[in-house]
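re: ur question from earlier - yeah i can do the single chain one, its not a big deal. heres the input i used so u can compare w yours
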Amino acid sequence: MRLKFFLITVLILPVMFCDAKPAQLPKITVMSYNIRMGSADDGTNSWQFRYPATAMMIEDRMPDVLGIQEAMSYQIRFVEENLRNYKFIGVGREDGKSKGEHIGIFYNKKTVSLVKWGTFWFSETPDKPSKGWDAACPRSSTWAVLKSKVSGKKFLFISTHLDHAGAVARQKSAALMMSRIQELNPDGLPVVLVGDFNAEYTHPALSPVTDSMKNARKIAAETDSAGTYHGWGKDSQVIDHIFYTGFRSCLEFETVVKPYADRKFISDHYPVEAVLVF
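and the output i got, formated as tokens:
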């Protein structure tokens, strides 16, 4: 009888594994959001008028990990004070402490735990605050090794913001990015790279990234084709991206165009979100 039970179990388990639906597999929801620096004078779109909408968007979407760009220290404090589930990691790009814009990471403490993190700059001296090549300003990336509390899976997450003016800087930054990912990931963990790349994914400057990583927008089973940068409704460019490698699949990709707090726009960029399966 025991032998019969063993044989039945051996035969059934592979079938159960093969028939597992994507919804039953461990997954992680990730987002990229250029919050638009709070110091910008955007008239009725300035931070003082739209800040509640940002909190409402994050609370509504509840990503496990959120890569953020252009955040000033008081914008970060606002999110942390109003969304207690989220913890921020990152530094100011000007001094490596608190000065200037932060290209950082919010992670949901209920679903994800932090293993380690750091920051590097896009320049010839990436380990200290600096401006590289023909960039208009200092540019940096914040990275973190995180662990899903649901699945126990570890992954490397990077939030980045490439320069808007320097063509050479964008190309060299993309190459530096891939070099750093190799250094930071000796264990071959799944990788998520999100951010404002200031370039369409087809731009040659991004080829070091696109040659090695998958574009969630293009791979996802459910996706869209909406622009991500709109300049308060005046433009439409797809320059905010989610790239990944080492995951089984991407179930969904969405450009979050929904208005919040009666604001048509929560930033001059729409957030983008993806659901990745381990």
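Confidence is low (pLDDT under 50) at residues 1-18. not sure if urs matches, ping me
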